[in-house]
Structures are given as structure tokens and as C-alpha cells.
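job 3f2a | input accepted
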Amino acid sequence: MRIVFIHLGLMALAELLVIGSLLIEPSQEGGFLGFSPGRWAILFVNTLMLVGVLFAIYKVWTNPPEKLEIWLANERHLFWLFFLTLILFGFSFPAGLGMIPGIREFAYFGRIQPTLLWMAWASGAVWLTLVAALRASILRWFQQFFPFNLPVQEIPRLTRAQRYIILGIALVHIFLQLASMFQVREAHWLPDSIDYIFPAETYAWNEPGLWTHTKPWGAAVLYKLTGSSPATIDAAQTILSALAWLALAWVFSRFIRVRWLRVVSFGFILGFSLAPSVQMWNHIIQSESLSISLMTLILAVWLSLLQNWRWEKLFALITLFAWWIGTRETNVYLSLMTAGILVLVGLFYKRQCFYWAVSALLVFFCYVNIGISEVPTLPRWLYPLTNTVLHRILPEEEFRGYFEYFGMPVTPELLALSGGFAHSEDFAVYNNPTLDDMERWLYRKGKDVYIQFLIAHPVYTITSPWQHVDELLAPSELLNYAPDKYSPVMVWLFGEAFFPNSLWLVLLLALLAFALTVRSKSWRGSPAFWLVLGFLVLFFPHFYLAWHGDAAEVGRHAIQASVQLRLSLWLLLWLALDTIVSQAKQN
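job 3f2a | predicted structure (587 res):
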């Protein structure tokens, strides 16, 4: 009780100082007692807060201590007090420091700043006091929102022969990955590779250039860790990919209850990773290999978290997400959608409310990366937007008219680039003085007008990717990116059966997975099913982002979405088969 009195007393004293600062500030002529209506309003609000604190002191003084303890022990009261003070501090502290533009630019900011800082101090002190005084109760209360002590699915032990087979499959997978690495020896350069190597070679860890260069920082950080030697990069990307797919194969197979099917699914996932559309990126200096490997690791760690809750797994998941978000621009928006899904999961499942914290961190990571993308002289979105406007908007009279209505300067010099890309005519949009107005328009208004255009043309927005689905999900020129020395292993198996390139086969796989899922009802009591289903659902926004985000090299930009689609369908298929075989055994 003494701590509560001291805390409330200090709050009242601090509030008196705030009111005093408002009263002694030199007055301007006009208004009651020379104070403006705005200052009277601020004084009135602060007086009300002081009265509230004094009333709290009175209630604590006149009531027995047991009543306060009983009130604080109530789960609902604890919930609201704990999070209300945290939310209040999270708003008032940055606002008081002038970190929120809308409040900083407010005409009365100088006068409300002491009040905001008082709110930050008071709410922060209450929160810390609550944590210190009720740490045991808070810990017990928080545990109901975490999946502690939940029954773990019993995993049938494999026979010795089956364990040896899994070990053999893993060794063969590692051998084939290393054989491919020694075959290529040096990672292949593409035109964009310099945008990852340059910041890795040029900037130190504490220099902004490493994180704010023309491309997302994820691959540059990897190359900073490995060094910029193409041979080292090839080895690092190959080893990281092999470990990621081994982790996913092992963790996912532990959800399979039929032992022989577990062995088969383990081998199948590793075979999937040997498909040229997956493996070839390990030998290229770009962000695709890292992004696919991190996506695979995120799925593996998340599945492992569902099997057995541990704090280190949660921290690993958050760390992987942070790196993945910084690897490709599309990952930012996919993570924002993931954050939204996690909020819904926490609403429906009490023991999954901890995902709200994960969701908040994802939003924060995305916010930071969106800010970073605006830092370069040419924001990262400007080049792909230029590709889209030149290649898709200018050739269509209706679309061109829409953009022209919103100020795009359509000149003969610009029309000469119709159907081209940003690099056309030696990057004419950026280098030709006659197109300076176009460059300024793209920078100032282009992104907003393009978003409005997509909203105003829903039929085009929805249908255009599907009209070019083969370019996105089954590009014929994909192997042109691979090094000349790269020779895929057993393309007829890994590149056709495991990773079907034919869209008809992909459609057949989707129908089969759907039919077996409905037949088996594999969603019952299977957290792995819902995670994989969410993974599949996120393919669709990924698919649209890859198409509408850039008109150039759409097959390469969509490769991660392509991997995501096929992998999620296979995982759903394996879960359904496991359920069907298990039910047949029980009957």
C-alpha cells in the first residue's frame, strides 16, 4: 500500500507542476484573464486529471487494503489495467517527444507537451509498479494466453529400418546439393546482383547505406556475413537452402502418424527442393534463394512451435520473419496480411493470444522496411512502377487516358517508349531531359494514381494475372537465369513430378488435394492443417503482388509464390493421405 500511496502522490505532484507551468506562462491579451480558449481547455483537462488522482488517493486511504488486492487479483481488472497503461504509454511517450507528425504539427503542441509527458510518466510508472508488485500473478495470468501444458500429439516411433532410410534420404539430399554446388562453383551474376554486392562491400554494419540501398537489405546482409566472393555466396546459399528444407521435411513428417508415410513425405519434401525452379537460385547472386530458404525455415519453425511450445522457437520465428521481411518487397505486404490473420487467431483461440505480440512486431518490422524503401534517391517502388506504366499503361489507350487525366505528361517522347521498360533507351525516363516532367510526376503522384487505377478497374485488376498465369507460374525461360554450368538432377522426376511445371498438372494437384482433404476431414484436430492452409491462402495475394508490382521479369518475381503454391498443395495432400490411411487402420 505504501508503494501505491507514493506513486499516486508523485502523480499528483507532477500534475500540479504541469498546471503550474500552464498558469505561469506569459499571457496573451484577450480572453478570460488573458488566457486563450485553448489554454483554458488544456487547464480544464489537467485539472480533471488531478482531481481523478486525488480521488484515487482518497479511495485507497479510506478502503481496507484487502479490497485493493482483491480488485487487482480479478482477472478482468488486471487485464484492463495492465494493457490500458501499456497502450497509454505507447501513445503518450512518442507523442510527448514529438515523434507523431499529426500531434507535433498541432498548433498547441508546446502547451500539451507537458501533459503528454506526464501521461507517459504516470502510465509507465503504473505499468512498472504493476509488473513489480504483481509479477507472479501477471505471469500466471499471461500463461492462459500461451499454449503451455497443452497435450502434445503422440508421434509413433519409427522402426530402425525406417530411421536408417530417413538418414539415407537426408544424406543423399545433402550429397546432391553439394554436388550441384561443386559443379557450379561460383554463383552467377545477374544485372541486379551489383545492388546487393555493392552495399555489402562498401558499407560497415553501422552505416545506413547497408540497409537503405536500392534493393532490400536482406541479401546484402547475407553477403556481408559471407563475403562477396561468388564461390562463397554459392556455398552459403546452397548450405542454407539444404538445412532449411531438411528442417521442414523433418518437422512436417512428425505430423504424419503413419510411419511409412512419414518416411515417404520426408523424402518427397527433400525431392521437391531439388527441382530446378527451387535449386537453381542457390547459384545466383540475388535475393530469391535467401527469401525461399527463410520462407521454408519460417514454416518449419512454426510447425515445430505447434508440436511443442518453447520460447526459443518463438524468438527464432520472430527473427526469421524480421530477416524475411527485409529480403523482398512483397514479403512486407505478405507479413502485414499474416499479422492480420494472427489477430483473428488470437480472438478465436484464447491460448493463441500471444500471436498478438507477434502480429505487433510484424507490423513494426514492416513499418520500418516501408520507411527504408523511401530513403534512396529513387525510392525502391519507382523503378518497377516505371516498368508497369511503360509496358502496360501506355500501350492501352483507355489506361493511358486515365493516367493522363490525373496529370501524367503524355508526350511524343514518352509514347516512343510505349511497351518498353524503365531501362529502355538508356533509362530515358531518368536520363532524357525531355522526360523530366514524367520523372517528377512518377515520383510525386505515380504510385497513388496507380493504386487508384487498380481500384477503379477491378476487372482488370482481378483477371489480368490469370490471363498471364503461365508467365507467372510456369515461365519457360526460367532456366535462362541459371549459370551455364548448372545441370539439374533428374529433371523428369524432381522438375516434373515433384514440382510440376505444367499448369494442368498443378490444377490436377489442387483438385486432388481438395478432394482428399474433404474426404478425410483432415482439419479436425490438426493445427498443422490450418497453418498450411493459411500458407496456401497467402499465395493469392502473393500472386497479385508479383503481377501488379512490376511488369518486368514476372516469372522471376513470382518464383517464391510459385514455390508457395505447389508446396502448400503437396503438404495438404500428405496430411489428407495420412488421415485417410490412419482411419482405414482403425477400421
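job 3f2a | The chain has three domains: 2-143, 160-375+475-586, 382-456.
job 3f2a | closed
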